[in-house]
Design brief:
Among the domains are: about 70 residues, no CATH class; about 80 residues, no CATH class. About 10% of the residues have low confidence. The longest helix has 24 residues. The N and C termini lie far apart (about 70 Å). Strands 4, 5, 6, 7, 8, 9 and 10 form a seven-stranded mixed beta sheet that branches. Strands 3-16-15 form a three-stranded antiparallel beta sheet, with no helix packed on it. It has about 230 residues and is mostly beta strands.
């Protein structure tokens, strides 16, 4: 009898401790914070936009009359010592200059080439010369000249007859076909209908379109809308 009462008391104490633990776990969580840990906070979808995600203003890229000239010197480590400042053994140095597109010459005859690697190696005359030209675009918001690779999200530019939009998840051709297009056989419709003049444009389904996406854009891990010149 004494052993039975002891087991019963031990069971009651374990149950009491367990209820305390459960009571602590069941503390109220609120959407605005409170007891909700930061790592468990979520973004909630409402009215076509994400809470707590900053909007991105779009801007127009216009092809300029200048190009970015990258003068690149490369030295083979088999003919010299290996470079110690990079993961690769090659000696590489690059100097970028902007030149008029109509005057794309050979900068080997000027002082535009780098002469020394970051590790201190001095390039020899027989080391490689590489010349790369990239078009420069004028940003409508900052009047800065940038290459397409340098342009951050929000850029809009024209390639041929199509408009290209750069989102945080990648570039979208606004004349392309959506992956979930409901009219893949129809070439007369557009999956994204553009309204307004770039960069102040809105993309939706108002027009000859399909049922894909409801006007939203999915690129990589980014999902949002383009409304009145804002990615949101």
């Amino acid at each position: 009898m004494r052993h039975c009462l002891k087991r019963l008391g031990d069971s009651w104490m374990r149950m009491k401790k367990r209820r305390k633990r459960l009571k602590f776990r069941r503390r109220p969580y609120t959407l605005s914070g409170g007891a909700f840990p930061d790592k468990f906070k979520f973004k909630f979808w409402s009215g076509g936009s994400w809470f707590n995600r900053p909007k991105i203003k779009t801007y127009l890229l216009t092809l300029s009359d200048q190009v970015r000239c990258s003068c690149r010197r490369v030295a083979d480590p088999e003919t010299t010592v290996a470079c110690l400042t990079d993961d690769e053994p090659w000696h590489i140095a690059i100097k970028n200059i902007n030149v008029p597109a109509s005057e794309q010459g050979n900068p080997r005859e000027t002082e535009d080439w780098p002469t020394v690697c970051e590790c201190g190696y001095i390039f020899r005359p027989d080391d490689e010369f590489e010349l790369i030209y990239r078009p420069l675009y004028l940003r409508s918001d900052t009047q800065e000249l940038v290459t397409l690779a340098e342009a951050p999200a929000g850029a809009i530019w024209k390639e041929g007859e199509s408009w290209i939009l750069r989102t945080p998840g990648g570039d979208l051709n606004l004349d392309s076909r959506a992956g979930n297009c409901s009219k893949p056989w129809c070439n007369d419709h557009k999956c994204w209908i553009m309204h307004g003049e770039p960069p102040e444009i809105t993309v939706d389904k108002q027009g000859n379109s399909c049922d894909a996406g409801g006007g939203s854009i999915i690129m990589g891990d980014w999902h949002g809308f383009l409304r009145n010149g804002w990615l949101e």
